[in-house]
Amino acid sequence: MSTGVNATLLTGEVADDAYVTFGGYDLAWASPCSDGLLEGSCGAIDLSEQSGYGWKIMTSDLFTSLNISATTFIVDYTSSNTQSLSGNNYAKASGWFSNSHSHIDIANGLSGSWAFADTVDSCCDETITYRISSSVSVPEPSSIALLGLCLVGLGLSRKKKAA
To answer: DSSP labels for 79-141?
Structure first.
């Protein structure tokens, strides 16, 4: 485990290499401590800036429905926003959510020690934040459907003009 202290929260959007996209959500491993909402914490997370980018604290229902685990955060790159354990690199975003911690406790995540916005947990459970992924594309009408609408419109306008 590597620990460190950030003087201030990182500002701006969470870096792309600090979170994973899974099941239509961006997921950020935000802290090695509980969220601090329902219980004491070794360093509650700070959403003062990141809530503006859509980040929220994970709920137990969403966690369960997505079937998330620590392995969800394994990435195939190394950066200042990853942390390694047993040959795997895990995306970490703690610098954007904590001025107390710049690490995550991967072993806690692997053992299932997670804190949620809607349950009371111990002070040292890991916290995940989430937002709806901007990479989820909204289906657009096909070009054939658009062409069909244009032809119908032209047909109606000619019919109206002829009458």
So the answer is: -TTEEEETTEEEE--HHHH-SS-S---HHHHHTT-EE-TTS---TT-EEEEEEE-TTSPPP--
